[in-house]
Amino acid sequence: MNIPFVGREKEIKLLSEAMGEVRSGRGRAFFITGPVGIGKTRLLREFSQHAEKNGFVVLFCRAIDEKAVPYLPVKDALDEYMSKHREEQPLPIGLIGALSSTQEVEFAQTNVLAREKTRLLERYLGLFEKLSSSAPVLLAIDDLHWADSGTLSLFHYITRNVSELRMLVLGAYTDEYFRGGRNTFVDTVQHINIERKCPAITLHPFTVDDVSVVLGSILGTWKVPEDFVYAVHRRTGGNPLFVEEVGRSIVEQGLFDINERKLKVNFSQIQLPDSVKTMISQRIANLDENTTKVLRACAVLGREFEYEVLKNTLEMDDETLLEVIDNLITTGYIDQGEGVEETYRFVHNPMWEVVYTSISAPRRRMLHKKAGEELEKAHGKERKYWSEIGRHYFLGGELNKGATYKILAAEDALTNYAIEECVDACEEVIKVLPNISDNDFKQDCTIKTYTLLGDARYIVCEYDEAITAYESALKVATDRNTRINLMIKLSYPHLGKGNLDKCLAILEGAFGMLAENDHAGRAEILKNIGWAYEKKGEFLKAVECYKKSLLMSEKAGEEITIGEVYHRLGTGLWYLGELKDALRFLERGLEIRKKHNLKKGIAGSYNNIAIVLKDMGDILKAMEYYEYAKKIYEEIGDISGVATVYHNLAIIYSLLGEDAKAIEFDKKDLEISRRIGDAPSQALAAYALGECYQDMKDYATAMNYYNEAIQASERYDDKRMLGWSFAALARLHAENGKFDEAEKYLDMAMKYAEATGNKELLGVAYTSRGDVLLYEKKFEASEREYQKAIEIYREVGQVESIQSTNYALAKLYIAWEKYELARRLLFEARDFYIKINGKGMIKKIDEELKRIEENEKI
Ligand SMILES: Nc1ncnc2c1ncn2[C@@H]1O[C@H](COP(=O)(O)OP(=O)(O)OP(=O)(O)O)[C@@H](O)[C@H]1O
Ligand SMILES: [Mg+2]
């Protein structure tokens, strides 16, 4: 039965106009919303056909809640399109196992992992860009409320960038889910709504005329009696699905006389239920036994299911089953799904729900177990089925098998940065752990699950949760290597929280447990210990650890690890101002990374080498290296990396005294970081801009940027960056004579410096206090603070900071009229900046020297 499409002229017109815009290069995105059965899917389908006829490439997909596989709907739709058009897949998208090259992300700081996710999203975006370059694209995602977190992030990401693509994006969801408390879906929609790049089209119920047409087509006449139409309209509230079900039920009960074109009974005698679900239950109650049996098995399998699996679950022969299926299709319960395999699906969600809830609990358990077994037989090796198989086994009471598959699914989700799915799967396993009787298996599951949970929590900066999870795993772990491994993992969230001493204690504990001849293990842990010292700003100690780590890794002979240690050692030496050695090690690291084609690593090497070159005064070569790094970051879709390069270029320009250019690049960095939601980069860029504007005495703008830096740092709990920002605000207020405010911010900066134990930050806090005191003209006190800062910088070997503090101290001496002292410091700083070609600073220093001369004349 073909029910004509009615009453959506307004929506079609609006969407057609959007099509026009898309064609001319300005992409658009819309939500399609409304209650269950209002016609969202129908509108998507009708409009997709319309778009296809008008030359759009149409990608239609649907999210299904029980699948929970990251990016599955979009990936499936793309695969289908590719196979239809026999195009080779331009990019390995979606389930690419992006974490597999662990060496590249060994020092996986949270922001690095967030970058990995962005990388994945960028690849999708790139793919859509490519697709839409030949023809405009319509991407329609139905039932978005059931989408996995990966698909939701992708949808969000596309809406942010859609105006740059020749692409129309539609996402349909049912209102009820939006009101159902907080979850990833609700959060995503709220975020999208704030950004205003994806307006919602809300569908309204049928008018009386619409109802008349639809009923007419079901009943087989164009002249449905008017009072009957009115009555149905009133009872159903014009809900299309309800209207349709009423029509079907009247046909099935033979209550309409087609010749007479009227009801055989009085309308008031027909029992119309007051909800569509009750209506559906009434209809299924009248089905014969065999049909009911099949329908139940279908419902247990899910909203979408494969013919083979259904057949095996039911143990029914093809002929009988096919007959029942044909019958279910004609009566509108199920229809053929799209896709490669022979699949079917429930036409309407309420139908699935009504059938599923009508099955008794013991029968449901039996059917789920069978479904799990059949799915495992057919697809046990395919990752996209793992979550589903696990679900069936759990619901079928097969806990061991359920846990095994859920853990596999959690691992897979984590590899794709689908954190929510990973956490959900882990939590399901944790719930059943007490009921698992095999002790060895239970221990194994406990360790695996809590480790995964810890990894997932860590990636999204939920450090306390990550610590709890790793500790739960440690509690049951007995094997030495497992324990060591877990301790290394446990050290990361402590590092992230800024509990550096705790982090070091854990790592040293793990180090002590290593076997004498475990060179690789020693190399690894020493490298991490070095990293923690680097975070503390204790660069001498860091370098010492890296050197030891290098010895160990050379003994172990694992080349990639050696390369990573070279890189770290080079970076550490740079902090110490030992530029030549730094360059040597960074270049060696680069060589190894090149040999193993670790692209992101190569880009990282170029970036760090450029930083060293800059400090050596070879600005041109530094810029060339930044270009290399940028190119690779672009190639692998790591635009966060691109943003970092912009930031570093800005530093170069500011060193050269080209402030306008510096601002331009920092703004580029900031724009990208905001767009992709990269909080660490955003904080850094905003902070840098704050400093630029403060330099130009535009205090209002500077303050805004500092506040943005603070907000972004709070988002990912970066105490170090918060300390820096508060120190900057203190200077800003002092410069404006607001000393009380300045004191307040100084206290906060100091608090964070002490909390993180970060020496570099402590130095910054002292310098800021020196600045503030200088504005207050408390010279002696100010001098003391600067000297404290210099002492710290000496201790940790931060040469550039020593010189910039010398410059600050010189300004103090000028104000204090101690010109000789000032001059000496300025010359020392000048020599240094000449060495590194810091024209901007040299200019500033020369200005101060001139001031001394003028003052002395008077
Ligand atoms: N504009 C329309 N003209 C004719 N029939 C319609 C129209 N809109 C919806 N219908 C019919 O009503 C029924 C329910 O519509 P549809 O499945 O599109 O609703 P939905 O909003 O997607 O529901 P759900 O929230 O369950 O996904 C379908 O059988 C569909 O064919
Ligand atoms: Mg629908």
**What's the CATH architecture name of the domain at 9-202?**
3-Layer(aba) Sandwich
Q: Pairing-aware structural class of the strands and helices?
A: mainly alpha
Largest sheet data: 5 strands, parallel
Mean pLDDT, all residues: 89
**Would you give the CATH topology of the domain at 9-202?**
Rossmann fold
The hetero molecules present are: adenosine-5'-triphosphate, magnesium ion
CATH homologous superfamily label of the domain at 9-202: P-loop containing nucleotide triphosphate hydrolases
Q: Roughly how many Å apart are the termini?
A: 102 Å
What is the percentage of strand-forming residues? 5-15%
Q: Major sheet: order of its strands?
A: 2-3-4-1-5
Assign a percent range to the helix content.
over 70%
The beta-strand count equals 10
Radius of gyration: 33 Å
Q: What is the CATH class designation of the domain at 9-202?
A: Alpha Beta
General shape:
elongated
Q: Runs with pLDDT <50, length 5+? A: 89-110
Number of helices: 40
